Amino acid sequence: MQIMLKRQLKQLSTKNNSAGFTIIESLVAVIVLGILMTAIAPTIVLSTATRVQSRRVELATLAAGAYIDGVISGNIPAPPISRVNEDDEDVLTNDRVEAPGTSLDCDDLDDLRDKKGYCSSPDETSYKVYCVDGSGDGKCTENESKDMIVQAFGFNPQSTDAAEGYKLGVRVYRADAFSDNEALEKNAGEGKATQSTFTGGLGKRKAPLVQITTDVVVPGQTTFKNWCTRLKDSNNTNSNDDCID
Questions:
Q1: I want to staple 171 with a disulfide (CB 3.0 to 4.6 A). Which of 51, 62, 151, 176 is the partner?
Q2: pLDDT in tens, 52-110
Q3: In angstroms, rounded to a whole number, what is the distance separating the alpha carbons of residues 155 and 168?
Q4: Residue 122 in contact with residue 103, Cβ under 8 Å?
Q5: What is the pLDDT of residues 117-136, one digit of tens each?
Q6: Nearest residue to 149 via CA among 87, 205, 229
C-alpha cells in the first residue's frame, strides 16, 4: 500500500513539474512573439498605408480621365475658359489658378443633375468643381474620402468660347479635404504638392491626388485654324499666317 502511494505521489509530482514547464515555455513564446511583432509592425503599417494610398491615387486618376472624356464628348459642359495675355509665362500652366475654396456644396442631387455633375459651391469664375461619387450614395460629402472632387479650368489666349478649343487643367482632391476651414494646397512653381503613392499615414489630405493638363478639341466645332492659332500663341509665336482652315 505504501509503495502504491509513493508511486502516485511521484506521478503527481511529475505532472505538476511538466505543467509548470509548459507555462514557462508559453510565456517565453509570447515574449518572443511580442518582440517580433514590435519589430515588424512599422513595416506592416507602412505597407498597408501605401496600398490604400495607391488605390486612392488610382481612383483619382480614373476620375480625372472620366471627367476629361466627358468634357471632350460633350456630355459634361466645359469649365470656365480664361483668356490671358500670350506673353504670360504661366499661360498654359495650372499654377496660376488658386486651389479650391474650403467650402463645398455637392449634396443636392437635383442641383448636381441640373449642372451635369458640377457642385454649386465654390462659386468661382475661374474654375468649377465636379463631383465624382466614389462611395455610391449619389452625392459628394465633406466627410467621405472615397468621393473625388475635380477642380477644372481652361485657358485660351484667343477666345473664351469652349467650342474653339482650349487647354484644360484638372486637379483631383478627396472630398474630405474640404471638411474644415484650412486652405487646400496646389503645385506652385517648382514646388510639388501632389500626393505621393508612398506614405506611412493618411497622406496629405489637403493636397491634390492627381494634377493633369491636356488639350481639348471639340469634335465638329473646333477648326484647325482655332487649334493652330492657339498653339502658336501659347508658344509666343505671333505669326499665324500659315494657320488656315
A1: 151
A2: 888 888 999 999 999 999 998 889 999 999 886 545 544 445 567 888 887 888 988 88
A3: 7
A4: yes
A5: 999 887 788 899 999 998 88
A6: 205
